[in-house]
Amino acid sequence: MGGMNSTETPRNYLFALTDAGGTVPPEIGVARRLADRGHRVRVLAEASMEDQVLRAGAQFLSWHGGVTGELRDWGRQSPLSIARGTVDHMIAGPARNQARDTTQALCSVPAEQVVTSFFALGAMIAAEARQIPFDVLMPNVYALQAKGMPPMGTGMKPARGALGLLRDRLVGAATAHMIDRYALERINALRLDYELAPIATTWEQVRRARRQLILTSEAFDFPAELPDSARDVGPILDDPVWASDKPWTPPAGDAPLVLVAMSSTFQNQAACLQRVADALGTLPVRGLVTVGPAIAPEAIRAPANVSVMASAPHREVLSQARLVVTHGGHGTVIKALAAGLPLVILHHGRDQADNAVRVTERGAGAAVSRRASAATIAKAITAILGTPEYRQAAEQLGGVVAQDAANNTLLTELED
User: Fold this and answer.
1) DSSP E strand boundaries for 23-80
2) Which residue in 40, 246, 260, 385 is a FRET match for 341, CA 20 to 30 A apart?
3) How far is the first Cα of the chain from the last one, in angstroms, to the nearest whole number?
4) Residues 46 and 139 reside in one and the same domain
């Protein structure tokens, strides 16, 4: 990114970000792009993000107190328990501290604009109370209810006909009600403390943003009637700092290279990773398993044709790979598609089933149960590698994704 033109005036941006694993690289990437343009960027974030913020050229400010640490949604069974855990950990639980810290940061150094993570409702309330415009980052597919958009977290295909639209309304209302059940009273109490009127639903706080900036390709998401404030600005393909500069060597040989990349946060994925490694061990391929910071490399027993590493620069690996096996996080999926690679997705939860159905509906890969046997996983990998149509579909969709990333309209929206 080049610097600003001499006629442009640097602006003060305050980011309020939460560490949700895969959302961190694209959100830090937004801050970096503004800093590269010569703007003054401060980032309120968790201590785990300090190095990444500083390397992006921004000033780091730490959240004080609040709920931090691992979101153990993988250990919960019922939708209600998942909703409550998410609210306590990411939405209402940290909101009061977020509002306080954001207010203090704005009092210390005024900002013309606040940019927040999707779950940083406390920061949104603080910005709204001080009448400062705020934008919300969505580093995945569109997360709120919209006509034509399947409810988030369900992995549903697009609705067909009146019954399909009714399905979306009912399921969407039910999932929103679960969040409201545990969050809305606490969010409205906080709004009252900041002399703001109550809201009817929790997600209305997000809808009050000046912009909802969707960090994906419009071609990847399903078509829907989005609100005027929502913008598909294109994906951010940045690798995480902890992987971007790591040396790596491809496994020996010239067999097709398969990259395995699961979640950067703990989702109890070690057993799944082991079955994937075992599957690769039965195939005429080279496997590169990157376990990320949540799993120790030595926890995975590697067959002779498989290398296991803590991390590797995915941008470089993807240029040599033929296939990606993943949990279905948006960052990994969108980067694989941008490289023209088909996928085998073993989704674990969160938004991963939603990403998987967008891949399979376009014929760019296959979805397999995270509990599938090594033999079933091997069968899926063999089918994808042996069927040119998967690669062709991935290249077709990925070409648009890569173009949207290159022609990202993010800065235009933020500097408007």
Assistant:
1) 40-45, 59-62
2) 246
3) 17
4) yes
